[in-house]
Design brief:
Shape: elongated
Structural class: alpha+beta
Radius of gyration: 28 Å
Order of helices and strands: HHHHHHHHEEEHEEEEEEE
Strand order of the largest sheet: 2-10-9-4-5
Distance between the termini: 45 Å
Largest sheet: 5 strands, mixed
Number of strands: 10
Number of helices: 9
């Protein structure tokens, strides 16, 4: 599996030297990832360790960990360089999508006008689309360093925000509706209805999704400040962020919120298309459905995550070792939960995991196995007891890649 990973990341990497061109930067990142995967599997198989260190398991393990940590930092640096080129590509792609939607609307209007003829409604719809596309293009140019049109949708952790994306969809539909009706009024069209009675459902949903965006951000901020939620910055935003948690696993609360909001949004858009001279009327049953979906989404935000915690600290025992107390130089195994936060399973964040043993800060060594790492894990990690730790009662705690420190557990170290 690891060989397939290396081939996947290394494919199409080319042999051109790194430079300022976007293709060279992306190729450099692919080559760095492929080199890291190959090096990890080589060291996991026991190859590549210097002969001078082979006699000492502790020294060879530390050398392997340092070697992988350096390689992981190289991958991260290459990723940052490739990120600049990636943001430019995302900006161009989103703008192409926006203007492609305008072109699709024009073609649709032209095809449906063959029998019925061109009307003022079609002109207003096309003009509204052009105005919105021009506004989005201007905003994208002003925020080209943050991904263009997608800039307002990115959270502080560099992931696409589900709540912001849903709110943006409803805001876009509402803005399009108001502009369309305004153009219809400006051209003297009769029977344009802007009454609150018909638009009450749309207004209620818009308030709901806007309030959800603000509340979700407040919940996350408060939980992070209280160290009950760990957030690690993502390397880059992905479309899957809308439906998944920080660890890339599908989230039921996010999925239901996106599905319900998209379905109701499509219903409102169809209503507007069929009756373009008034605000789209949403049945209150659909408004209630959105409210239930919002409630589930916010409850999910309150329940996710948790503070990392140490349950116990024991002496790590190899096969054939005698049972004994913890002494300086022994390996200790820390058991608990939350040591590897969601989104921190990549090699570079793992190198930031630190164990505080009395006054000494010990970095957790990376122990490679084919396809991944045996140490550290989310529920257990092993670290050698440093020689600077004095015998006696010593407090042990773990500082995760998110900067959150666990509870402290006291152990006894003997001579």
């Amino acid at each position: 599996m690891a060989v397939q990973e290396a081939r996947q990341y290394g494919a199409d990497a080319g042999h051109a030297p790194d430079g300022g061109c976007p293709h060279c930067e992306r190729s450099g990142h692919r080559r760095a990832v492929a080199a890291f995967l190959a090096r990890r599997d080589e060291l996991a198989a026991g190859h590549g360790v210097p002969a001078a260190l082979a006699h000492s398991p502790v020294a060879s393990r530390q050398w392997v960990s340092d070697e992988l940590a350096q390689s992981a930092r190289t991958v991260t640096a290459r990723g940052r360089e490739a990120g600049v080129a990636r943001r430019g590509r995302v900006e161009r792609t989103t703008l192409a999508t926006v203007w492609g939607a305008v072109l699709a609307l024009l073609l649709g209007q032209a095809l449906t006008a063959l029998g019925a003829g061109w009307t003022g409604t079609r002109t207003a719809a096309l003009g509204t689309a052009l105005l919105l596309a021009a506004a989005l293009t201007t905003a994208a140019r002003l925020h080209r360093d943050r991904g263009g049109v997608l800039a307002p949708l990115l959270g502080e952790d560099n992931r696409l925000s589900t709540s912001r994306t849903v709110a943006a969809g409803w805001l876009l539909l509402s803005g399009y509706t108001v502009l369309l009706l305004s153009l219809r009024l400006a051209t003297g069209a009769p029977h344009v209805d802007l009454g609150l009675r018909r638009g009450a459902g749309l207004l209620t949903v818009l308030v709901l999704v806007g309030w959800t965006t603000v509340t979700a951000r407040l919940i996350v901020s408060l939980r992070v400040a209280a160290r009950r939620l760990q957030k690690v910055r993502a390397e880059r935003p992905r479309p899957a962020d809308l439906l998944c948690d920080d660890d890339g696993r599908a989230s039921l609360t996010d999925v239901q919120y996106v599905l319900v909001s998209t379905a109701v949004l499509a219903f409102a858009a169809v209503r507007l298309g069929r009756v373009p001279d008034r605000l789209p009327e949403l049945p209150w049953a659909l408004v209630l459905l959105v409210a239930v979906s919002v409630t589930g989404y916010l409850f999910g935000k309150c329940a996710e995550g948790g503070r990392p915690k140490i349950f116990s600290v024991v002496r790590a025992r190899e096969a054939g070792d005698l049972d004994a107390p913890i002494r300086t130089g022994d390996d200790i195994e820390i058991r608990g939960i939350g040591f590897v936060p969601p989104g921190a399973a990549a090699p570079e964040p793992l190198t930031r995991l630190v164990v505080r043993i009395g006054p000494v800060h010990a970095h957790v060594p990376l122990v490679p196995v084919p396809g991944g790492f045996a140490n550290p894990t989310d529920t257990a990690l092993t670290v050698p007891l440093p020689a600077d730790v004095e015998p006696g009662r010593v407090e042990v705690s773990v500082v995760t890649a998110a900067g959150v420190e666990t509870n402290r557990v006291t152990i006894d170290v003997v001579d």
